[in-house]
Design a protein that fits this description.
Elements: E1 2-6, H1 10-21, E2 25-29, H2 39-43, H3 60-67, E3 75-79, E4 85-93, H4 106-114, H5 123-132, E5 137-142, E6 145-153, H6 157-169, H7 175-194, H8 196-209, H9 222-226, H10 230-240, E7 246-252, H11 256-266, E8 287-292, E9 297-304, H12 313-323, H13 329-336, E10 341-350, E11 355-363, H14 368-384, H15 389-406, H16 410-422, H17 429-438, H18 442-454, E12 458-464
Parallel strand pairs: 1-2, 3-7, 8-12
Antiparallel strand pairs: 4-6, 4-7, 5-6, 9-11, 9-12, 10-11
């Protein structure tokens, strides 16, 4: 038998290989001079929920009919055969992005309670099954999404999937378990309040966004959490756990047939889109502060930044590297030159709706306003004295090295792919983002500095009273 295959991409090459193994003569034709230069190159050999599978694969016809016409969640697969480990990250959009003051913390309580019993497993059975696999189900929460992860040996994947699927699709929210998990939420809120930086960051977000979702406390509100019921959690789960609102990312030695099975077993049954969230946008400039009995004041000073997919995000991320850190401009001006602070840093937070360029200081109570004035002066100096070549090169190297170190595990890679897709970006956007950072010039950073200095600023302050 002689077979002619048109297209030397991932599917064409794979088909040709196995036909040759089976003894057929194969001719592979492509309009490009090399292999894998069209769709496979552009997609980075990624497999999506809309992938084409051989029609003789068992179950694929029924699966295709169910998927047809649906704007369903993508399945993102990065095949890696160098380790016998599979990492899975499942994310749902919304969650905290849909909270209101009266429900602040419901997503946190949902994630904790979802692991505490399903339609067919008790909390103890879930824990025992997962632990017997040498694994664990992790939780990821952020202002724009939430979800669950699993990392397991490839040889135990078939044993692990039923447990993860049960947690994702059939949580029972036993009322007694929900009440127990509220204690965990209260403890998390207390720990959050005990962290000077976390509390100052919460106050900054409240100053910037008010009662919008981005302005609510990251750990939730104890009074709101106390009023939540098991029925509230079931409704919250049904609101966000929907196919079009879900991303499933997999990294490891997974074949196409297994990838299709993952989608079938882990994707939510509901096919309707999730309700839209109202964007959180910055309000009028103001300051929020609380008094505490400590000999320290923590403050977050923030300026308008760029959203996750914003054009200015690479420049603002790089500028935060130049200003933050022990060798950064803010640290040098506030601590090295003036000995005003215990801690100084800068960061650029990018979210789906908007972003913030932040400067954090921890000072003696009587020096907090001096530190603020120096930070404002340093922001203005970025216009007069933009970063030089040495600063830019050092920051670019640090940014790329930090990303490379952070992506050493399959779990980190799966999380990155899922988060990028959830934020409306291509799963391979991370590498293109770094390329855009590498291409930034002094003029680009000057424009980013102009953005910071042209806008208003907000401030969150945890002000020590000078005694305990």
């Amino acid at each position: 038998m002689h077979v002619l295959i048109v297209g030397a991409g991932l599917l064409g090459l794979t088909t040709a290989y196995f036909l040759r193994v089976a003894g057929a003569d194969v001719t592979l034709v492509d309009r490009q001079p090399g292999v894998g230069r069209e769709t496979s190159f552009a997609n980075g050999a990624m497999l999506h929920a809309s992938q084409a599978n051989p029609w003789n694969e068992p179950g694929v016809f029924g699966h295709a009919l169910r998927m047809m016409g649906r704007e369903d969640s993508p399945l993102l697969v990065r095949p890696r055969a160098d380790l016998p480990v599979v990492a899975i990250q499942v994310l749902h959009g919304g969650g905290r992005r849909g909270e209101r003051p009266e429900t602040a913390g419901i997503t946190s309580l949902l994630c904790k309670s979802q692991l505490k019993g399903t339609a067919s497993r008790t909390a103890q059975e879930i824990a025992l099954e997962v632990e017997s696999l040498g694994s664990g189900i992790g939780v990821l929460q952020a202002p724009d999404y939430y979800g669950f992860s699993l990392k397991v040996l490839k040889s135990r994947l078939e044993d692990a999937l039923p447990v993860l699927a049960d947690v994702l699709r059939r949580p029972a929210f036993p009322p007694e378990e929900v009440e127990k998990e509220k204690q965990s939420v209260y403890a998390e809120i207390r720990r959050h309040h005990d962290s000077m930086m976390s509390r100052a960051l919460d106050l900054f977000h409240r100053a910037c966004y008010g009662s919008q979702p981005y302005g609510l406390p990251a750990a939730g509100d104890a009074e709101a959490a106390a009023a939540l019921t098991a029925d509230d959690l079931a409704a919250w789960h049904a609101r966000w756990s929907r196919g079009p609102n879900t991303v499933i990312a997999v990294v490891g030695p997974v074949e196409p047939r297994e990838a299709a099975a993952l989608l079938e077993r882990l994707a939510p049954d509901a096919t309707e889109p999730a309700p839209p969230c109202q964007p959180s946008l910055p309000g009028e400039p103001r300051q929020e502060e609380v008094l505490i009995e400590r000999n320290q004041t923590a403050a977050v000073l923030g300026f308008p930044g760029a959203p996750a997919a914003g054009e200015d995000r690479p420049a603002l991320d790089l500028l935060a590297r130049i200003c933050g850190g022990l060798a950064g401009r803010f640290f040098a001006a506030v601590r090295v030159d003036n000995a005003l602070a215990y801690a100084v840093t800068a960061l650029h937070l990018s979210r789906l709706d908007s972003g913030s360029f932040l400067a954090y200081t921890a000072t003696a109570p009587e020096r907090a306003e001096d530190a603020r004035d120096i930070l404002l002066a340093e922001c203005a100096r970025l216009l007069r004295e933009p970063p030089d070549a040495a600063e830019i090169t050092s920051a670019k190297t640090a940014l790329r090295a930090s990303h490379a170190i952070g992506m050493q595990t399959f779990f980190a890679q799966a999380a990155e792919m899922a988060v990028l897709a959830m934020m409306g970006q291509d799963p391979e956007e991370a590498e293109r983002f770094l390329e855009r950072v590498d291409a930034l010039t002094r003029d680009d950073l000057l424009r980013a500095a102009e953005r910071i200095n042209a806008g208003p600023w907000w401030r969150g302050v945890v002000r020590g009273t000078g005694h305990r």
